[in-house]
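I'd like us to work through together how a protein chain folds, taking it slowly. To get us started, please write out a protein record for me. Go ahead whenever you are ready, and we will take it from there:
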Amino acid sequence: MSGGSRCCFSLLTLLAEVLLFGSVALVVAWCLKYRGGFAWTEDPNLQFNLHPVLMVSGFIFFAGHAMLTYRQWRCCNHSTIKLVHTLYHIMAIPCIAVGLIAVFDFHNNKKPTPIPNLYSLHSWMGLVTVGLYGLQFIVGFFSFLFLLCCDTATASFRAALVPVHSSFGITTFFLAVATCLTGLTEKVLFTIRDTYQSLGEEPIVVNVFAMCLVLVAIVMSVLLLLDRFRQNTERPHPRQQAARGLSPDTYSSMPDEGLVVNALGCTLVAALVVISVITSQNVFRQSRAHGGIATEL
C-alpha cells in the first residue's frame, strides 16, 4: 500500500470507528433522554427501547467491526484474524436475540390491545436480515473454522467460498442499515409524528443518528470493496498450494503429475476430434429401411 493510500485508509478507518461508536451512543442517548430509559416485561414501552439499542449494537457495531478485522488487524496472522472476526459475531448474536425478544414482548404485551407481529416492511426486512445473518454465521463457522481440521482436503472449497461469504456479508450489513432506517421512520411516525416537523431536539437526534448509519454504510463500502485497502495475505501453505494444483515452477520441470495432466489434456483433445469426425461424416451415419425407404437416424 502506498503512502497516500495508507493515509486515506487511516482516515477512513478512524471515521468508521467514530461513526460506529457514535451510532451506538446516539441510540442509547435517544432512548434514555427522550424515550424514558429501559425496562423488561414490567413496562412494555420501555422494554421496546432495548430493541433499537441491541439491534444497532449487534448488526451495526459488532458486525461492522467483524468485517473491519480483515482491514485493521494487519499485524496478525490469518488464523488470529479469523478468530477475532468470529468473536465479534458471537458477541452480536445475543444482542440480536434479546432485541428480537424485546420487540415481540412489546407487541404481545401492549395494552389495551396487542400489536400484530410481522406486518410492516421493517419487520419483513428484519426477518430477511436475521435469516441472512444466521446463515452467514453457520456457513462461515462450518467452512472456515470447523473444516480447518481437514485443511488439505477442503482448501480449494474454502478458497472458492471466500468471495461468496464476503459478498453476502457486505449485503447483510447494508440490509441491516436499511432495516434500521425503516425502523426509525416507523418509530417516528408512531411517537413524534405531530412534533417531527418542528425539528426539536428529539427529531434532530433521530435525524443525526440516521445520517450516521448512512455514512457508516458509505465508509464501510469504500473500506471493504476497494482493492487498494485489502490486506496483503501470506503465501498459501504448501499443502493448500498442492491441493489447488501445480505451481508454474513445478509444472515446468515435468514431474509425474505434470505428465499425467498433459496426457489427460491430449486425450480430451483427441476424443473431441474423433467424436466430431464420427458425428459429422455422412458415411458413418446409421441407416434403417422402412417400407423400402432408407431413413437416417
In short: The first helix runs from residue 3 to 33. DSSP finds ten helices and two strands in the chain. The two ends are 64 Å apart (CA to CA).
